[in-house]
Design a protein that fits this description.
13 helices
């Protein structure tokens, strides 16, 4: 085997090792995990998965997370599409400064906005709802989506717009039936990053929910007790949180590669 091909294999091995270890732990009992080092489960058990799929507090954590992540992704893309089109097609006073200001919101840590969102949402009565978390995540995802989409839209010739208008297309019809399909790779990439941020973000999701919209990441803290952590259950829950992200990556992998090629990912 050539040395050049060995390096990526070793790199992938180190990337996959923690995931394998997490999956292997999910099929062990807590006692076996604490008893020592073992590469494979000595006592194979599915008890942790049975608990997650039969206990409403566990599987509703996944449902809640998927709901607010989906709402956030739809809102972020719907708002970012016309905004990115304006930045890519028009020049107006302060456009570059406004574009930079949008990105500065993405640079701020989520903890900065936790208390303002908590008080605001409590006042308007949407605390502990999926919409509350989805809207909070929009503060970070919309600027990122605008930045990604603007790059893809900038690669589309303006002659496409002009040709459509000459052919009698109204702007909404042109935008929905011609322009968006043209940049569907960018839409896929932007949706992917919105999904991933919202899926892994914990602080705002935990602060803005209590019971009804509690995310899976917050639910996982219930494995702690006076006797310690239920490590097998915690590993099984962690394994299941990887699956949605893996599915999304599988479907948008080609679009992400195109985004890298355009320098916007």
């Amino acid at each position: 085997m050539q040395k050049r091909s060995l390096v990526p294999i070793v790199y992938i091995f180190f990337l996959m090792l923690p995931i394998y270890w997490l999956v292997a732990m999910s099929f062990k009992t807590t006692n076996e995990i604490l008893s020592g080092f073992s590469l494979f489960p000595q006592t194979f058990t599915l008890d942790a998965y049975k608990t997650i799929f039969t206990d409403p507090t566990w599987y509703w954590g996944y449902i809640n997370s998927i709901l607010y992540v989906s709402i956030n992704t739809v809102i972020s893309i719907a708002v970012a599409l016309p905004a990115a089109y304006a930045f890519s097609r028009y020049r107006f006073l302060g456009d570059k400064q406004l574009f930079f200001w949008l990105l500065t919101n993405r640079m701020a840590p989520a903890a900065v906005f936790a208390l303002p969102f908590f008080q605001l949402y409590s006042a308007v009565g949407i605390f502990d709802t999926h919409l509350a978390v989805a809207l909070a995540h929009c503060l970070f995802n919309i600027p990122l989506a605008v930045w990604i989409l603007e790059g893809f839209m900038g690669g589309v010739p303006k002659e496409l717009d002009e040709t459509a208008y000459v052919d009698g297309y109204s702007f909404p019809r042109f935008f929905m039936s011609i322009f968006i399909p043209t940049i569907k790779a960018g839409v896929g990439v932007a949706a992917f990053f919105c999904f991933m941020f919202s899926w892994v973000e914990l602080l705002l999701a935990k602060t803005l929910t209590a019971v009804a919209a509690k995310p899976i990441a917050a639910t996982m803290t219930k494995t702690a007790s006076s006797a310690g952590y239920e490590l097998g259950l915690l590993a099984a829950a962690g394994t299941l949180t990887i699956i949605p992200g893996a599915i999304v990556i599988y479907f948008v992998r080609n679009y992400i590669a195109k985004g890298f090629a355009m320098g916007r990912v």
